Amino acid sequence: MLNTNGVPDKKQIFSRFPDKKYILKPKAITECYEEIPCNPCSTSCPFDAIYIGEDINTAPIVDFEKCTGCGICVYNCPGLAIFIVQELDNENARFKIPYELIPLPIKGETWSGVNRAGEVITKVLIEKVSLTEKQDKTALIQVLVPIEFINDFITIRSKL
Amino acid sequence: MNKKDVIICRCEDVTLEELHNLMKEGYTSFEEIKRILRVGMGSCQGNTCGQLIQRELANFTNTPINKVVTHKVRPLFAGVKLKSIVKALDDES
Amino acid sequence: MKKIDLVIIGGGPAGLSAAKMAAESGLSSLIIERNFKIGGQLVKQTHMFFGSEKQYAKTRGIDIAKILVNDVLKYSDMIEIMTGTTVVGLYKDKVVTLLKDEKYIKVKTKAIIIATGASEKVLAFEKNDLPGIYGAGAVQTLMNVHGVLPGHNVVMVGSGNIGLIVSYQLIQAGVNVLCVLEASSEIGGYKVHASKLKRLGVDIKTSHSIKKAIGKDYLERIIIGKLDDKWEFIEGSEEELIVDALCISVGLSPLSNLLSMIGTEMKYVSYLGGLVPLIDENYETSIENVFVAGDVCGVEEASSAIVEGYLTGLVVAKKLGYIHPNYDKLYLDFKAQLHNLRSGPFGEKLRRGLEEIMR
Q: Which residues of chain B have pLDDT under 70?
């Protein structure tokens, strides 16, 4: 339970994923389930795809028609609560996740894939690591994840 | 619980046992306790012990915590040497 | 005796913002800061802040400190800063006495903004004074300001935002966080922070607390236990953990001693963290021209402290005859920002607390 251990339930998670037709292209998933006073995801989006509005306590709503999955909101979210997901084919999903720990992974490495409860569930391939000045110390990691974990994968842990 | 090992006031090294013993003797106001145990008179001036003592008093006297009167804060808020005060007076005149 | 129109006590987010806005209005001020550097607790906040752009959201606290300090330094002809200086006395005739390097200084002023912030609450448990037991904020200072690790195996007590954020920063520093204990049945802070920890493998144990610490010369082990709905330990639920540091993060209480000293009307409001002054809609206390800004009148986020600072700086300047060219527009904007920051479900207790202290 989100309120007792920090793990959102399946229903909550699914509520943030778009229809299957959208996810064939990269889309932002905002796992921000509470109404907290915060709006950088919305103001940082160059495509006006995340709506919060005047009352910054409103939970973000993504317009999946407009979202290009660029990943700018991912490193601008102070709660590290946004990631990008794309269904590549029948075998793999591609994620872009925020990452603030060292050592950073290196392109081509295989790392453990972790779920929202902190358990290792799979192996993932690091496709790209970016950390520009604009990202202000939050790296963006692009990883290839086996498709069956598309709703479970959330982060990476230690090189294999 | 071994009350001897629970520190209530770090500045003056006052334990929960000392506090409880005093309350049992009938000292149930912060000002009285302060005068006997020196709580609130150390370097932090009650910032640390204040809320702990307030809670203990609330429990002991069965009073809501917001009704427990805290201690009177007076100048000077930190140790000032007499020398410094005299020097300031000299400079003024 | 030194004479200055406005004295601001505290060089954190609230005090710095107040000085800037007063200066913009044409009013000079003196900032008194106990620490050797201005910036307050922002200087150790390595995480990105929430809020909106107006309160520098998504900027790391440490960088917000730089912005606010630079703003103040731009007005070096109008804003005097005394660091390493403690206010030792505050008197009704608006004389402030200071201590700097053993020098006792008297300042006569027309208005005072008290922006002293808050201090960490502590817990009473066995051996609670063993070396290795810290406030979570203290650990943040140790780590993020001085570059010193508090220990290698740490347990955090308290799952408010500070407890969750400091746990995350401990992990960033390579420390093993065994678990976070929360006495209540639900996590206290933002769940995005909780989720961030959980995915790193840190358990948040609700209805749990620290029972006692064990160690001879320093912390070696702790006993934790499960709490019933009356917050009493359930017998037989004890668990022993090997740790070399324990962080206490059970809330902050306003540093309102100076207000008690000067004799403003005060009230104990648990929603605001403890004893706070009664204020009007412009943060003026029951003593004319004595204002408050930031955590000293109710513990909340630094974002609100910044806006409260701007607001009081603006209002004090006007009261002393220095009217900002955009006064009306700014006043409404600051009020709207504060309303916005507090209007969500997380602001509910705060709103109720603030209602209680309106005079």
A: none
Answer whether C270 sits within 8 Å of B65, measured CB to CB. yes
If you search the block for the tokens 């005093």, which residue do you land on?
Answer: B22
Say which residue the tokens 């005796």 belong to: C1
pTM over the 0.90 mark: yes
What are C309-318's pLDDT values in tens digits?
999 999 999 9
Stated length of chain C: 359
Measured distance CA(C168)–CA(A101) in Å, rounded:
10
* Residue bearing tokens 């903004």: C113
- Residue A85 pLDDT: 98
Which helix (H) or strand (E) segment is A75 a member of? helix A72-76
Look-up: residue for tokens 């005090």? C15
User: Measuring CA to CA, which residue among A128, A133, A74, A115 is closest to residue A98?
Assistant: A74
A133: left (phi over 0), alpha (psi -120 to 50) or beta: alpha
Q: Which two tokens stand for residue C349?
A: 């207790």
Pick among A16, A76, A99, A100 to test the C interface (most C CBs inside 10 A): A100
- The complex's ipTM works out to 0.97
SS3 C45: coil
Q: Write down the domain spans for chain C.
A: 2-119+252-357, 122-248
Domain C2-119+252-357 = CATH 3.50.50.60: yes
